[in-house]
Amino acid sequence: MKKFMLILLSIIGAIALGGGLFVSFAPTFGATAQGQSLDRIQKSPNFKNGKFQNASHTPMMDESPLLDKVKIFYKFFTGVDGSSPENALPMVNLKPNDFPTTPSQTPVITWFGHSAVLIEIGGKRIFADPMLGQRASPVSFIGSKRFNKDLPIKIEDLPTLDIVLLSHDHYDHLDHGTIEKLKGKTKHFFVPLGVAAHLVKWGVDPNKITELDWWETAIYEGLTLAATPARHFSGRGLSDRDKTLWCSWVLKSATNSVYFGGDSGYDTHFKEIGEKYGPFDVTMLECGQYNKAWKYIHMMPEETAQAHVDLKGKVLMPTHWGAFSLALHTWQEPIRRLSKAAKQLNIQMATPIIGHRWEPTGTLPQELWWKGIQ
User: Fold this and answer.
1) What are 62-84's pLDDT values in tens digits?
2) Which residue range or ranges hold the Metallo-beta-lactamase domain (predicted)?
3) Average pLDDT, stretch 243-257?
């Protein structure tokens, strides 16, 4: 018995050691801030007691009984019927010449699924949260797999990007492999505090990265970018929870404004942003991967509709759905619930298929394309 226990403990120790070494040295986990970046973090009014804080009290999980939480985690392992479509979703196949040499002055939006959105505004081309990998995971064999095997266009065929915009460092928003392929064709990266360290480790020139705190702004060749609050959290490893900031983004040209929400639970910040920077030609807001158990860090679809109203948005485009299953609802539930809520609040909503280039100031894509897809 003692021999058996010794062998068992040795195996457990070896696994723990191997896992720790993997987390410490695998590049996918990124890096921690140092130097001037760390100094800015420590001086941020949003950084307290060694980590970033939300403006409102934001528990990761609600106050539900422990047994309910166990049931939730059990469902994650067993799966939910209908959480992923049986077949690939409809998609527009793009070619390099579909993108003009000079990006549009007025907004043109191309959704790549989940929260990955290519935005043209003010003559600039911006890719927000370009997670274009196959799994939202630090490894290639574990984690939710992308619904569609193919992208609208190969990463290598994308045009030059003026800006890559990141909302936070979670794997379904910041992908190591994607950044490796985009870094050579991206002129500049705008990220929340602390996220630059990941990019630098992956070979991005530090001079091409600008970090912003909430309510800070930057001007890039005539385009104004403002890092605005969100209600969420961050982290890529076992010990870096909330060591980097999360945010939403405002983009303003001389004539147009767009809002990219990243991930966020509902709170008063949407109204504050709307009062300061609205109205917006289009808001891009998450509507999926929610659950009442983590209602503080991800909005319910009905809250997404209200957030759009708070922001003074003209057109709403839902994000954070249509690519990965990261919650316990069916893949269609978010868009069905949001469509109903948008109708009740008289919201103009755009529902493009993946890869469709569309203009918020033009004819909106409003086909209910998900109907009839199992």
Assistant:
1) 666 776 777 787 787 777 899 99
2) 125-321
3) 98
User: In sequence order, what are the residues at sequence separation of 6 or more whose Cβ sits closer than 8 angstroms to the Cβ of residue 273?
Assistant: 228, 229, 248, 250, 259, 310, 311
Peptide bond into 229 cis (omega under 30): no
Residues 6+ apart with CB under 8 A from 296: 58, 59, 60, 62, 231, 265
- 221-237 confidence digits (pLDDT tens): 999 999 999 999 999 99
Cβ-contact 210, 191 below 8 angstroms: yes
Tell me the C-alpha to C-alpha distance, in Å, between residue 309 and each of 160, 283, 306.
Answer: 34, 10, 5
Query: Which residue matches tokens 């896992």?
Result: 19
The tens digit of pLDDT for each residue in 55-65 reads: 999 998 866 67
Q: Give Cβ neighbours of residue 218 (< 8 Å, ≥ 6 apart).
A: 190, 210, 212, 224, 225
Q: Average the pLDDT over 367-371 and give the result.
A: 96
Q: Using an 8 Å Cβ cutoff, are 262 and 249 in contact?
A: yes
Beta partners for residue 190, in sequence order:
165, 210
Q: What tokens were used for 311?
A: 């922001």
Distance CA 315, CA 349 (A): 6
**Which domains, from first to last, does the chain contain?**
96-358 (3.60.15.10)
Helix axes 301-310, 333-344, angle to 10 degrees: 40
Q: Which residues pair with 315 in a beta bridge?
A: 282, 348
pLDDT given at position 39:
98
| 269-277 helix and 301-310 helix, angle to the nearest 10 degrees | 30
Contacts of 217 by beta carbon, 8 Å cutoff, 6+ apart? 224, 225, 226, 227
**Inter-CA distances, 126 with 118, 258, 322, Å:** 6, 12, 21
Measured distance CA(64)–CA(104) in Å, rounded:
49
For strands 217-220 and 257-260, give the pairing.
unpaired
pLDDT of residue 15: 42
- Residue 347: CA count within 13 A, CB half-sphere: 30
Residue with tokens 């091409």: 208
